[in-house]
Design brief:
Distance between the termini: 41 Å
Number of strands: 0
Shape: globular
Number of domains: 1
Radius of gyration: 18 Å
Oligomer: single chain
Bound molecules: fe (ii) ion
CATH architecture: Orthogonal Bundle
Order of helices and strands: HHHHHHHHHHHHH
Strand content: under 5%
Mean pLDDT: 91
Structural class: mainly alpha
């Protein structure tokens, strides 16, 4: 997996040095690390020489489409865009990360609801990266089973907590990068405690299990293989995403055209 090639020095340098890194909370650090893993795996898939890539002059919490180094060209979308069009033209690395996670869920014969959740669990990072679990739940809630949206909301916190029952360990990479005495913020602990006793706990937990396969550069599935699963698990509006007046239609419009002010 892509984590093998990442060392602490590269990671700290990417964050702007030790002083800058010390100002980031646990959630931001874990997100940055996932981003670095994803980049490393994408470069490997493209057979590019692994090298740290500078980020454009955008805040770290802004989504991938606002970073011209990540998405240099905004390809046109159809007039009535479907989820699959966003996978093809907007989600960039976060789409592939979801595809790899979903492929693992499929290969390990998980229920289709977990496959769908894995597929879309991080797509919101194209739009906004800070607190992406919460934003992701809001983006998807109008279109998916409410257990999927719930799971996406809580997967952000569950990353930091192991669960032996499904073989999810506290990431060794976190120990290596953040140190052994690293503690997530109080709101992350509170979200975990809340999720742990909820009847839908496993819908968030399985996202974290499948997430770890999302950096596996040996699998590169195509979105075309998931057409039927999306058809059964995503309520595609006939007007097209962004024109459907749903509570998150504005988010899809921003993804369609992130260059449009106001
Ligand atoms: Fe995530
Ligand atoms: Fe993820």
């Amino acid at each position: 997996m892509a984590g093998d090639q990442i060392d602490r020095r590269t990671f700290i340098a990417r964050l702007g040095g030790t002083a800058a890194a010390s100002t980031l909370g646990a959630t931001a650090l874990a997100d940055e690390l996932e981003d670095l893993q994803l980049e490393a795996s994408l470069q490997k898939a493209e057979k590019a020489k692994p090298k740290p890539r500078p980020r454009a002059a955008v805040r770290r919490g802004s989504g991938g489409v606002f970073d011209k180094l990540r998405v240099p060209e905004l390809e046109p979308l159809p007039a009535e865009p479907k989820l699959i069009d966003f996978f093809r033209h907007r989600f960039a690395g976060y789409g592939l990360h979801g595809l790899r996670s979903a492929q693992h869920a499929l290969d390990s014969r998980q229920d289709e609801i977990h496959v769908m959740a894995a597929l879309v669990h991080d797509i919101v990072q194209s739009l906004v990266r800070s607190d992406h679990g919460y934003w992701g739940a809001d983006l998807l809630a109008p279109y998916v089973d409410e257990r999927i949206a719930w799971g996406i909301r809580y997967h952000q916190a569950l990353r930091f907590f192991p669960d032996d029952s499904v073989g999810y360990e506290y990431p060794e990479l976190y120990v290596r990068m953040f140190g052994a005495d690293f503690e997530p913020e109080p709101y992350v602990h509170a979200a975990y405690a809340e999720a742990r006793k909820h009847r839908w706990y496993m819908h968030a937990r399985m996202i974290t299990v499948n997430d770890t396969y999302g950096f596996d550069d040996t699998i590169n599935p195509s979105i075309d293989e998931f057409t039927d699963i999306i058809g059964r698990n995503f309520r595609q509006p006939k007007e097209g995403l962004g024109s459907d007046n749903s509570p998150s239609a504005h988010m899809w419009r921003t993804l369609i055209n992130p260059d449009r002010p106001l």
